[in-house]
Amino acid sequence: MRPETIAAADPSAEAARIHDIGYRRYDGPRLGRAYARRSLYTQSLRGAYGLGRSARSKVLPMLLFAVMCLPAGIIVAVAVSANMKNLPVEYTEYAVLLQAVIGLYLAAQAPQAVSRDLRFRTVPLYFSRPLERGDYVLAKYAAMASALFVLTAAPLVILYLGALLAELGFAEQTKGFGQGLLSVAVLSVLFAGIGLVVAALTPRRGFGVAAVIAVMTIPYGAVSTLQVIAWDQGNLDAVPWLGLFSPITLIEGAKSLFLGATSAFPGGEAPSGALLGTAYALVLLGVILGSYALLTARYRKVGL
Amino acid sequence: MTTGPLPGPTVNPVNVILTEGLSKRFPKVTALDRLSLTVGPGVTGLVGANGAGKSTLLKILLGLSPATEGSARVLGLDVARDGGAIREQVGYMPEHDCLPPDVSATEFVVHMARISGLPPTAARERTADTLRHVGLHEERYRPMGGYSTGMKQRVKLAQALVHDPRLVLLDEPTNGLDPVGRDEMLTLIRRIHTDFGISVLVTSHLLGELERVCDHVVVVDGGTLLRSSATSDFTRSTTTLAVEVTDTGRHPDGTAALVAALDRAGIRTHAGGAAPGAGRVLLLEAADEETYDTVRDTVAELGLGLVRMEQRRHRIAEVFHSAAGSPADSAADSPADPAAAEPGRPGGTGQPGQAGRTRTGETGKTAETAGPSRPRATSGGPDGGGRDAA
C-alpha cells in the first residue's frame, strides 16, 4: 500500500506509515568489481579472526594470536628490566621459534576461508555477481596472507617498541625490525598460498585442517632429518639444497640468503652463492604463483 | 543515494531475455538445442522436467557459461561480452542451499549487497528493507543454521533482491517447502513484479504452481522449446470441466441420465477415463460461463446430487501433445494416463498443485496434473458441488 493512500484513508495511521513504506528502488552508485573484491577481502580478513561470526569462531584465532604475542611481551619485559644490550631474540628468528603456532593458525583458518564457501555452496552467489573468479581468488589469497601477516608481525612490533623503550640502538633495531617484517611478509604469502590450495581441495573442514597440518609438518620433518643426516656424513653442500623442499626450511634458507639472518640449518650451515640464491628465489616465486594458479583452476569447476 | 517510492513497473525494454539459436553441448549431452525464445517484462515461468536444460540456460544468461553456438541478450546486453554488466542488474537465487550456518541473515545479506557493489550504508539499509519485504523479522539477527527451510528460502530470495536488480532468476524457489510455505513463496514472487517492478524468470518442474503466478509460461524439454505462451492460453482457451453426480431412485444411473439431458441441451460429454473410479466422471468442454449454469441447472432439474464440478487444467503432457499438433482432449482420454482419473480425490490432501504426479510412458517425462483449480461456479448445485464433497 502506498503511504499516501494510508494517510488518506486514516489520518491516525501515522505509525503504519512509518512501518509500511512500500518498496523503494535503489538509484545510488554501484561500485563495481574493485569494490566488491575489497569487500570480500575485508570480510575474509575479519573472518580469519572470527570477527562478524559467532563467538565460538573467535576463540581459536584470538587464543593463537595471544600465544603468538605473549613470548614477545615476556622478552621485552625481561630486556627492559634487566637492562640488556640486545634483545635475546632476533626479529627474523621469532617466527621460526613459534612456527608451530603459525602452522596451527593456518590449519585452522585456511579451511575456514575457502572450505566454508565450498561446503555451504556460497560460491555461486559470488559468481552470479559482478565479481569474477580471479577477483575471488585474489581477495581470498590476500586476506589469508594479511591475516598471517597480522599474526606474525604483531609480536615483532611488540619487540620493536620494547627495544626502543629499553633504549637499544635505534638504527640497528630499526634495521632488524624491517628485516623481520620483510621475512614474515614473505612467509605469510608463501604459507597462505600453500594453506589455501590444500584447504580448497576439500569442502570438509576437518580434512582441510588435517591436510594443512600434514603439508606443513611432514615435509619439514623429512627435510630436517635428511639435513641432519647429510650434515652428519659431512655432505655440507647438500644441506641448503635440501632446504628447498619444505615450506618452513624454504623460508629459513631465504632469510639467511637474502637477509643475512642466522641460519637455523644443522650446524648453522648458511646457504650462500648466486646459484643457491637464484634457486631459492625461483622456488619461492614458483610456489606462490603456482598456488594462485591452482586456486584459480580450482574455482573454474565450481561456478554455479 | 536516492530512493523514492516505486514509480510502478519500469522495465521498458520489450524483451528482457532474448535467445537465438542458443545451443550448449557437452561432450556427452546436448543441454540446449537451438533454443530461441523471447521473454518480456513480468513474471515468466520456465517449466521443464529435471535435466530439460533450465539450469544450463540460467548459467548462460548470467554470462557464466559460454554457449556453444547462438546468442543471448539479457536486458539488451550480450551475455558473451557484457556478463559483468548483466550480473550487476540481475539477481540469482540458486536451487540448492547456499547459506553459511554461523552467520546471521543480516550479516550475510549485507555482505552480498556489498559484493554487488552497494556502498556500506546503502547495503545495510537495503538489507533491512529487503529482509522485511520477504517477511523475515526478529530472527534475522540469529545465525542461519537454526532457520527453517521456509526462512532459508526467504534469505536466499533476499540476497537476490538486495541490490534492486531489474530481473531476478529464481531456480526452483518452492523446492522443499510445505504447502503453506509454497503458497507464501508464490505470492512473494508475484509481488516482486507487481509491487517491486522487477521482472522475474522462475523455473519449476510443476506447471500447476507456475500457472498461478506467471504472466507467461515457457516449456522446455530436452533443450528445445516446446511452447511459449501467455498463461491464460494454457487454461482459458479450452476449459475442461469434470462433473460427477450421484444416483437417485428416479435415476438409477445418474451419470447416464445427465449425459442424455446435457446432450439435449447441446453439450457434448465424454467419459472421464478408464481408471478405477473415473467411470463416473464426465468431462465436457466449457466454452463460456453459461456452460457452468447449464450444467448446474440440468443437474438440479434431474434431482441428482452434484458430487463435483471442477475445472480440470491441462497437464504438461497435454502441452506436449498439443505442441505436437494433436488435440488436447485426446490426452485426457488416453487410458495410459491414470493421473487423469482423480485429481480431486475425496478426502485427499486438498492442496492445489500437489495432486497426482505420474510418469507418462511415451514421453518419459515427469508430468503433473495441474491440480484442482480456483473455485468457480461451483456453488448453487444441490450438494454445493465442492470437490471434496461426498
Automatic annotation (TrEMBL), chain A:
TM regions (residue ranges): 59-82, 94-115, 136-161, 181-201, 208-231, 274-295
Keyword Cytoplasm on entry: no
Keyword Membrane: yes
Keywords: Membrane, Transmembrane, Transmembrane helix
Pfam families: ABC2_membrane_2 (PF12679)
UniProt name for this protein: ABC transporter permease
